[in-house]
Amino acid sequence: MIRKRAGVLISGRGSNMRALVEAARDLQYPAQIVCVVSNKADAAGLAFAIERGIETKVVDHRAFVSREAFDAALNAYLQDQKLDLICCAGFMRIMTPVLIRPWLGRMLNIHPSLLPAYKGLHTHERALADGAKSHGCTVHFVTDELDSGQIVAQAAVSVLPGDTAGTLAARVLEQEHPLYAKALALVASGEIQMRTSS
Ligand code: GAR
Question: All domains of the chain, ordered by start, with CATH?
């Protein structure tokens, strides 16, 4: 089996990235994590990747005059890495078509809600404010429209009485880690492909 070359984009803690790196330690896993890229030099997740001997790169968005210029620089690095797949894992940047288009069907994102509910930010707060009984997380293909690409996999949790945004986020995060590992495997093995709308 030829394992797919995957890169992970992060902005902070990187716990989902860690889950992917751990899953990929198994040589039967259909992807290997070859680089971890952050838009923030102080992203805590970078230390873990360095410790594991994974190539890391910081592309600081503040050094660019526009979103497109940042996306072009990031894309150039990702192309150089000869990646098959990209996993956004807590990568907190709105991406433009400059970055999205070259990777269409090959870029995944994890989002902390049961999409299509609660696209965007503050998902846990909004679910609680609505009195939602169920909440969760979604891995989807990245397309031009924010948090709207084809869904690869989802996991649900119950919202419990007394939940705060923090307790709910923690319960969802526990589901995110195995979900992302499963979703990347489904895409890397070719079991799931993005449907083309033609
Ligand atoms: C995760 O909960 C992820 O779903 C969320 O950020 C957190 C990152 O945690 N992503 C988004 O909100 C994307 N819009 P991590 O850095 O520990 O993986």
Answer: 4-188 (3.40.50.170)
Q: What is the pLDDT of residues 34-61, one digit of tens each?
A: 999 999 999 999 999 999 999 999 999 9
Q: Give the model confidence (pLDDT) of 104-114 as tens digits.
A: 999 999 999 99
Q: Identify the active-site residue in 111, 124, 140, 177.
A: 111
124 C-alpha to ligand 1 centroid (Å): 12
Quote the CA–CA distance of 20 and 18 in Å, as a whole number. Answer: 5
Please state the pTM of the whole predicted model: 0.98
- Write out residues with Cβ below 6 Å of ligand 1: 10, 12-16, 89-90, 110-112, 137, 173, 176
Task: Give the β-pairing of 134-141 and 151-158.
Answer: antiparallel
